[in-house]
């Protein structure tokens, strides 16, 4: 059985410290509440600023994974300056 918390004024509850630590939750983090049968499901959520949402698209994340794989495999080039980079791109 889990730890019991009391519902306080304004419907507030305390998330036990060991759960906060295990899930790396901090004051100000957001959580989502859902109902499943007669249970309350509480899960951490990350709210992404709309201006940054492009980064989390499926297409972009696939490209990020591909880039990570290329770096791990050594399929990358480095340049000392922008001119050398531009020359390599033109080739």
Automatic annotation (TrEMBL):
InterPro entries: SpoVT-AbrB_dom (IPR007159), SpoVT-AbrB_sf (IPR037914)
Domain SpoVT-AbrB: 5-50
GO MF annotation list: DNA binding
Membrane-traversing stretches: none
SUPFAM superfamilies named in the record: AbrB/MazE/MraZ-like
Protein name: AbrB family transcriptional regulator
Lineage of producing organism: Bacteria, Pseudomonadati, Atribacterota, Candidatus Phoenicimicrobiia, Candidatus Pheonicimicrobiales
């Amino acid at each position: 059985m889990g730890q019991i918390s009391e519902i306080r004024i304004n419907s507030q509850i305390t998330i036990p410290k060991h759960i906060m630590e295990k899930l790396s939750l901090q004051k100000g983090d957001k959580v989502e509440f859902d109902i499943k049968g007669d249970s309350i499901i509480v899960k951490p959520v990350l709210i992404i600023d709309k201006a940054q949402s492009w980064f989390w698209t499926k297409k972009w994340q696939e490209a990020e994974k591909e880039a990570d794989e290329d770096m791990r495999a050594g399929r990358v080039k480095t340049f000392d300056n922008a001119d050398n980079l531009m020359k390599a791109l033109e080739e």
